[in-house]
Request: fold
Amino acid sequence: MKIEIMPVGEVVVKGGNYFLKIKPEYVVAMQKLEGFSHLQIFWWCHHNDNPAARKKVSCQTPYEAAPEDIGVFATRSPMRPNPIALTAVKVLDINHEKGLIKVYYIDAENGTPIIDIKPYHPCCDRIKNVSVPQWCSTWPQWYEDSATFDWDSVFRF
Amino acid sequence: MKIEIMPVGEVVVKGGNYFLKIKPEYVVAMQKLEGFSHLQIFWWCHHNDNPAARKKVSCQTPYEAAPEDIGVFATRSPMRPNPIALTAVKVLDINHEKGLIKVYYIDAENGTPIIDIKPYHPCCDRIKNVSVPQWCSTWPQWYEDSATFDWDSVFRF
Reply:
């Protein structure tokens, strides 16, 4: 069974600003996005859409405390069987005329294909009682705290 | 640009229990999943993988207070250009030998293709200061509260 998907837009990084540029045929799908402070962005790790990266089932992480060899389903690595990435983004502005959603930040480079957008709903996305393995238990407990966390302190190099 | 993805497993619902059954070639990718209380499950809405459903850019929702016509990117509707669904699940048990992850619940039926699994990380998935539009502002503010919420009270019918 093979599944076909297609980009609905792309990431635009310009002058230190981050935008989601939606293709004209999907701009109507942006209607009523207003009011959602955050969106779930599904994007395609196009640099890793190759047979070698898609055969990866385990990897080494850049984190000092992490296990030597870790299954890719236990990581957010872009090298995985289906290189889909998920990033929650904070919405700054929505321009329906131009098909542009300005966001605070997204960890994807200019030209990255976007494959889906969904609203971030606390009732299905925000978990109160959550735990993670020991090796990443010192990481921030909230999305907002990631920006100021000293990630260098947990990196292997 | 067309993108090809393939299932890495499927949902198994059996005797009131919910499992993610991983294909043998991807079982190694489950290594070191232990310790993550919750996972992000990406699944394929196979019943909506048809040209009519994938042309949908707006829809009507079943919620009484929702706008009449709403863009699909502002909904979690399975009828959308790329019918990918995302569900955070609570892990109950992991069986590497059988390639099975037992979860508390998933809103996908028996035989649904799974296309990716990622760990739920509070630092990127759990947002403290989040807001939603007025029409869904009475919905639960936490994942855990969804199970006991009276969803009938917000449905149109």
